[in-house]
């Protein structure tokens, strides 16, 4: 399988800024050709790459005022390495987090998923439940909405679907987390987010939006929720995102049996 991904972000920087981008493919792909460029008003600026948890790669920039253009492209041959999990990591992904308030959703999870004791069946059941109880509506949620607000609103976008899946799974005792991905086949094309749960000794992905086949996903970032996986963080200064263009292509779009356990590869 060959996958080609690109992303181009244009920002208006109105005062010197410290920015962190999380748009590069995670460091799990041994056969990858890639390029990361950044310019301000057409002049190249230095980029520092940093290694984060779960093989996530951060790119840090200190830039002056002007039009910042960041471009990333990569071609990936074959599958990436699987990510394992330590006991401490599994415990971390059982706890409530900023956007996945599993403690507040414990009663809902117990009522809706009583009797689903097998982790694999629970994972598929939660994904199906979230997919049927939410309406996918672009622009319907704010960047600070968590799983509780998403459930109350009954609508959201991919990150909201992922947060609600993760919170409900944690509430039922299954370690779960969020993965930011490039998603060949996604329409409309953009950065995408899915949930992962630890089932049968591996991280298994579910996409409650069912907008892209899971076997083609390219891992970008992995963490507790969007606080760990956002594609852009403005650490200091002031910058406004003007436009984002994302592409993700695979040599052949496969089917996706929603009843199967699938890992991001």
Detailed description of the structure:
With 265 residues, this protein is of the alpha+beta class. The protein has two domains: 2-79 and 231-249, Immunoglobulin-like, CATH 2.60.40; 87-229, C8orf32 fold. It has six helices and 13 strands. Strands 1, 2, 3, 4, 5, 6 and 13 form a seven-stranded antiparallel sheet that branches. The protein has a four-stranded antiparallel sheet with strand order 11-10-9-12. The chain is globular, with a radius of gyration of 18 Å. The termini are close together. The model has no long low-confidence stretch (mean pLDDT 96).
Can you give me a brief rundown of this structure?
With 265 residues, the chain is an alpha+beta fold.
Q: What is the total domain count?
A: 2
Average pLDDT, rounded to a whole number, is 96
CATH architecture group name of the largest domain: Roll
- If you consult CATH, what is the topology of the largest domain? C8orf32 fold
Largest sheet: 7 strands, antiparallel
Helix tally equals: 6
Strand content: 35-45%
**Approximately how much helix is present in the residues?**
10-25%
pLDDT below 50 for ≥5 consecutive residues: which ranges?
A: none
Question: First CA to last CA: what distance?
Answer: 10 Å
In one word, what is the shape? Answer: globular
Order of helices and strands: EEEEEEHHHEHEHEEEEHE
- Under CATH at level 1, the class of the largest domain stands as Alpha Beta
Radius of gyration: 18 Å
Oligomer: single chain
* Content-based structural category: alpha+beta
The strand count comes to: 13
